[in-house]
Amino acid sequence: MADPTTAPDRADCVTDIDGLAALITSCRTCPRLVAWREKVAREKRAAFRDQEYWGRPVPGFGPSDASILIVGLAPAAHGANRTGRMFTGDRSGDVLFAAMHAVGLASQPHAVSAGDGLRLIDARVTSPVHCAPPDNKPTPAERHACAPFLTRELELLASTLEVAVVLGGFGWQALFGVLSQAGWQVPRPRPRFGHGAVVELVHPDGRTLTVLGCFHVSQQNTFTGRLTPAMLEDVLTHARRLAGLTSESS
């Protein structure tokens, strides 16, 4: 059996999205993250004490031929670390999926569990770190260890991906680091994160990718009004236009 602590090293051998998800789910590379995610899953939050927590790394989800990739930060301890699906089961996800549904990128506005019927349309959701970190702060070493998964995900989406919407400065830094290593012509100095930021990239093989910045859908931003539903919908609508999705799907 393959060593689960070396899972990121095998990412470039995976040939499809399902295989990548399986590899991510098996990973035990970062001792601090493994200990934390499993501790949270054992102890649980009182409101979820009757539920079985996922307690493992959380892979991205959405169609394997997505034209829009939404990049977050990491799973929430009692959200995706509980439900096993990105942005599912917490208030950040409530905001994100409501906006995605409003612009035609999700089949429903709510996400409460991995089996709730939510289907993403022309879009995929992922993150640079796949385990819930203490205080929502992965270390630089943990970010580096997880990077091969995002690198491979981008490679597997290469034939259809047109736009990346990055939620927050951490995801922005992580994504540009991965893109630079993958050969994309990233400007120097690297573009600064900002809500509404737009960066056009070109790969030596002729592919193009537009990266859009958006404030993260954290409660710190949504409760204070720094990020409103309208602001998020505007960014997602811009992403749809750039990806050539001129009419909303259902």
UniProtKB/TrEMBL annotation:
Listed under GO biological process in this entry are: base-excision repair
Hydrolase is among the record's keywords:
yes
Sorted UniProt keywords: 4Fe-4S, DNA damage, DNA repair, Hydrolase, Iron, Iron-sulfur, Metal-binding
Would you tell me the protein name for this molecule? Type-5 uracil-DNA glycosylase
The family annotation for this protein states: Belongs to the uracil-DNA glycosylase (UDG) superfamily. Type 5 (UDGb) family.
Q: Which InterPro entries match?
A: UDG_Type-4/5, UdgB-like, Uracil-DNA_glycosylase-like, Uracil-DNA_glycosylase-like_sf
- Fetch the SUPFAM superfamilies from UniProt: Uracil-DNA glycosylase-like (SSF52141)
Give every Uracil-DNA glycosylase-like domain span.
59-236
List the molecular function annotations (GO) for this entry: 4 iron, 4 sulfur cluster binding; DNA-deoxyinosine glycosylase activity; metal ion binding; uracil DNA N-glycosylase activity
